[in-house]
Amino acid sequence: MKKSKKFFIRICLSTGILASATLLTACFGTSAKHVKANYKVTAEAIPDYQSKNAPISSYWMPDKFLEWSAQNDKDLIYNQSRVPLTKRISPDKLSPSNQNQNKKTKIVALSMMNSQTSGNPSRGTTKFESYTFDYWQYIDTLVYWGGSSGEGIIVTPSADVIDEAHSNGVPVLGTIFLPPKEYGGKVDWVKTMLKKDEQGQYPFASQMVKVAKTYGFEGWFINEETQGLNADDAANMKALIQQVKKEDSSLQIMWYDAMTKDGKVDWQNQLNDQNATFVQDKAADAMFLNFWWTQNNLADQKLLEKSNLYAKNHNIDPYNIYAGIDVQAKDVQTPVKWNLLEKGNQATQTSIGLYAASATYTNASNWDDFQNRESAFWANQKADPRQVDHSVNESWTGLSKYVLEKSAISGNEFNTNFNLGNGYNYFKAGQKISEMDWNDRSLAGFYHLTAGLLTTKEKIK
Fold first, then answer.
1. What CA–CA distance (Å, rounded) separates 263 from 230?
2. 85, 87, 262, 441: which is deepest, by most CB within 10 A?
3. Hey, is 253 helix, strand or coil?
């Protein structure tokens, strides 16, 4: 199984077979059907294709966010995703790969899908290197992570990411990052966000709804870490979230465990009386807990077990609480006290939250290293979710130990171009029409199936 996977990846990346001509039209300024001859774009010419006027993904400071309108968004057509969120097969109808997998445990991945906040093209570039994630079956929500005090603190997912996630049945959240003062955060930014109009409503909340619905993504991750606020600010933050949910109950809001009910920044690393208010009373749908529950000085407090009990005692689904794991520095070598997450009877205390799941790419030395890290990170070191690591040490066990593989393929047939969303060449109808490197995750069509690789339109057994 492992050998066939590596062989197949080598084939699809060297050919870059695609089923759409969208990128051709954008890059070459002509309809693909008129291109008849093979040609090669020289390395010297590649920068010419990345025009300074190319559409880019949106990012804002709070005041500019409030000024946004669809009518004045010159790049709107490029930043909108028109790919509907594919419905996945219900977990109750799926069979676990191993006895440890729990059908209720979920994963949210906070990922740097692009390397920076600003200047990200809406739909790919003329480079092969890009974070082309392909283990969608293991995550339930993707947070498009970004935001900086020097660029913009409100970030929408790029359209190519929304397209691919939706094709795999995964909802996507944008990020609202209110940074600590030492990272350039300003209290005024939070105050702008929480300002009410004459009717006592929050214009910022309405903008959150309008932007998400217009661009085609499912909601927002709110990371409030700016110091210097008070209990009234915390109450207003909760009321703002409640207004978002009232205006559109389908939008998802995930809250980070930083601000407490008193308005202070004080990470709890558990669900308790200090932070639970933000996921109660029709406020946020979920909470991402801070990472310190697995540290030696807090381990004996069993904070995830306490979170599970607190949630149940306060009518909160414990699987809407995500135990944060910071994997940015070490990815597959991140030490985790997994026994604190495990509950027994093939269950977990909470769901799992991954900060910087894209570290398998950013920490990799080359493309093969990235693929190996991805396999070990999501499946396990044996690249086989059926073989569970039962060791009790803190080494990375592979997330397939805890979560069920979900599928967006529900019929008897499916079509795929077996592509990750990048390539060294570009083919149309079997003809190589460009040797220019490219990436565009909107065009990805690689279904990573645990049972093996299926050919186009092959019947699912």
1. 4
2. 441
3. strand
What is the separation of C-alpha 128 from the centre of its chain, rounded to a whole number of angstroms?
21
Mean pLDDT of 172-198: 97
CA 160 to chain centre: 12
Looking at residue 190, its amino acid is V
Residue position matching structure tokens 């699912």: 460
User: Using CA atoms, how far apart are residues 143 and 134, in angstroms rounded to an integer?
Assistant: 15
DSSP 229: -
Structure confidence at residue 411 (pLDDT): 77
Sort residue 57 into left (φ over 0), alpha (ψ -120 to 50) or beta.
beta
Question: How do strand 351-355 and strand 107-111 relate by DSSP bridges?
Answer: parallel
* 8-state DSSP, 293: G
Residue 65: both structure tokens together: 């966010």
Distance CA 34, CA 461 (A): 40
Helix (H, G, I), strand (E, B) or coil at 116: coil
| pLDDT 10s digits, 117-161 | 998 989 888 888 999 999 999 999 999 999 999 999 999 999 999
Span 291-307, pLDDT tens digits: 999 999 999 999 999 99
Residue 124 zone, left/alpha/beta (φ > 0; ψ -120 to 50; rest) = left
Closest C-alpha among 236, 178, 241, 180 to residue 208: 241
Q: Which helix (H) or strand (E) holds 306?
A: helix 303-313
- DSSP letter at 268? -
Task: Give the β-pairing of 422-423 and 438-439.
Answer: antiparallel
Question: What is the rounded end-to-end Cα distance, in angstroms, of the chain?
Answer: 18
Tokens of 392: 């009790």
CB atoms within 10 A of CB 247: 16
> Beta-carbon neighbour count of residue 277 at 10 Å?
17
The CA distance from 256 to 267, in Å, is 9
- Distance separating alpha carbons of residues 313 and 301, to the nearest angstrom: 19
Ranges of beta strands (E only) in 303-363 are 321-326, 342-344, 347-348, 351-355
Count CB atoms within 10 A of the CB of residue 320. Answer: 17
| Structure tokens given for 211 | 């932007």
The phi-psi region of residue 331 (left if phi > 0; otherwise alpha if psi is between -120 and 50; otherwise beta) is left
Report the C-alpha gap between 236 and 147 in whole angstroms: 22
DSSP for 410-460, please give it.
-SS--------SEESSEEETTEEEE---EE-GGG------TT-PPPTTPPP
Report which DSSP code applies to 9: H
The residue type of 265 is V
What pLDDT, in 10s, does the model give residues 91-100?
A: 999 999 999 9
